[in-house]
């Protein structure tokens, strides 16, 4: 009995590790200027729609993703991707998909941040429609503006984004 429980726990641990620690980004990020007006506007839209994010999370809690502004112990602001596990008041429990690079202290994948730390959010509903994703949408616009062809998979994904 002990060995059976151990094997189940090990398999569950491997599944959770693969589910949450592998990068969610299949395509490399588009090189952009952080001061690009489209990116600045995207972050402002995400921050101003946090109430919609919270309401959608209640309806679709299984596929919520955020980008967080995180200041490392070296004073460098990094932009971390994380799956949202729970929202309670202003606290957001997340599982970091992209842990910080410049942070020298120990940091677990499970992390608690504040709603104000969220730079962007994205929630996918049961039909595959995507709400939020303001930075991704800005990246689509920047690519089009700059004459960069999107991979077919990303090009096809554009229609999944739903306006609030």
Question: Would you write up a description of this structure?
Answer:
- The chain is of the alpha+beta class.
- The protein has one domain.
- Helices cover about 35% and strands about 25% of the residues.
- The chain is built from 5 helices and 7 strands, in the order H-H-H-E-E-E-E-E-E-H-H-E.
- Strands 4-3-2-1-5-6-7 form a 7-stranded mixed beta sheet, sandwiched between helices.
- Helix 2 runs antiparallel to helix 4.
- The longest helix has 20 residues.
- It starts with a helix and ends with a strand.
**Which whole number gives the mean pLDDT?**
83
Gap between N and C termini: 51 Å
Percent of sequence in beta strands = 25-35%
Count of all domains:
1
Strand order of the largest sheet: 4-3-2-1-5-6-7
Q: Please report the total strand number as a whole number.
A: 7
Instruction: Determine the structural class based on helices, strands and strand pairing.
Output: alpha+beta
The main β sheet shows up as:
7 strands, mixed
Question: What is the ordering of alpha helices and beta strands?
Answer: HHHEEEEEEHHE
- H/I helix tally: 5
At a glance:
The chain is an alpha+beta fold and 164 residues long. The chain has helices spanning 2-21, 37-48, 50-59, 134-145, 152-157, and strands at residues 64-71, 77-88, 91-96, 110-114, 118-124, 130-132, 161-162. Strands 4-3-2-1-5-6-7 form a seven-stranded mixed sheet, sandwiched between helices.
